[in-house]
């Protein structure tokens, strides 16, 4: 009897021990599985501690954390990015279309400073006489030739009503222009009737309400045209994209059924979406030409590609950038934000775009050769000049010896009098020809 009791006790103890062992192993496995994604945080914390304690210059924890997150997103793709609170605030202003500054769009200049590409209507720069092609070399008393574009933009922006003096190079003439900063409303959509029955609309960026503004502009052009509107040039050159829903509104204006765009992300993440055209409000009678260039990206490519796939528009110009991905913003309590690629979009034909492989125009039209290479303009002038052969040969040799690095050109002009733009813009000329032939 006693032996049976001992055996029963031992059996119970062994079962209990086995259960505890299995439970412990399961718990350890679960912990390891859960902890595995964060195993590198110990190394990160140690490295940051060493930097703070031993680096030759003092660095704050916040500064190092922001830099670390930025570096992490840089390892993903070129569209994902991390924005510190100050940068993200400026980005939100841009999406809303308002900013406090002078009202110019700029790009970097190979020899330093920034080149003004566009002067926004109604802004301080337009009132002060700044022009596309002007080069900003100084802001107040600070030389900006060694600064990045972002650093120059930060200097130019400032509180509304504060003065600013710009050092400008216009061709070979140095200028000093004094302005007063103001709130500038960057219009997403502008439009005009350039001849009876033919209209022109430019969408600068797909900011909030750009789709509604496009439809309002189109309705206004119909009223202003002395004859029924039969053709439209939709200019998406230099349009970097913006909000997907605003681009869909534009496509839906001209397509009454079928797929506009499809987004596909990681399985089970809730990022898959199919957006179809709707019939109400569709205009199937208006002939449309879309203008694009290598700076047309994202939402502007969705518009051009969807209209091209549905055979509702002729695409004219140059191949677009090729951005076939969808980003979303994750905002944090410190007002910083993470822009993360969460899906790819697919056009009605099933194609998805990649950098360097964007929308291919139906009619490939390049800007004027002179705007791409100033040496070509010099060669043309010398060929037409009344010179003896020896002098012409000598001058052409000097032209060919000029450095190939050149300032970026602000061509073609995207604002100003219609006749002046048409005279120097081959892409615009091609668009008019397509509409006039239809």
Model description:
The structure is a single chain. The chain has helices spanning 2-35, 41-54, 61-74, 85-96, 124-128, 149-156, 210-224, 244-252, 299-309, 369-372, 374-384, 389-400, 418-424, 426-437, and strands at residues 81-83, 98-101, 104-108, 114-119, 135-139, 142-143, 163-170, 173-180, 182-185, 189-195, 198-203, 231-235, 259-265, 273-276, 287-292, 314-317, 325-331, 337-346, 363-364. The relative contact order is 0.09. Helix 7 (210-224) packs parallel to helix 8 (244-252), helix 8 packs parallel to helix 9 (299-309) and helix 11 runs antiparallel to helix 12 (389-400). With 438 residues, the chain is an alpha+beta fold. Helix 9 (299-309) links the parallel strand 15 (287-292) and strand 16. The protein folds into four domains: 50-92; 100-185, Pdz3 Domain; 189-368, 2-enoyl-CoA Hydratase, Chain A, domain 1; 369-400. It contains 14 helices and 19 strands.
Brief account:
The chain has 438 residues and is of the alpha+beta class.
* Total of DSSP H or I helical runs spanning 4+ residues: 14
CATH-defined fold name of the largest domain = 2-enoyl-CoA Hydratase, Chain A, domain 1
Shape: globular
Strand content: 15-25%
Number of domains: 4
The CATH C-level class name of the largest domain: Alpha Beta
Query: Mind telling me which CATH architecture of the largest domain this is?
Result: Alpha-Beta Complex
What is the fourth-level CATH superfamily of the largest domain?
Answer: 2-enoyl-CoA Hydratase, Chain A, domain 1
Largest beta sheet, briefly? 6 strands, antiparallel
Termini separation comes to 108 Å
Gyration radius from CA atoms, angstroms? 30 Å
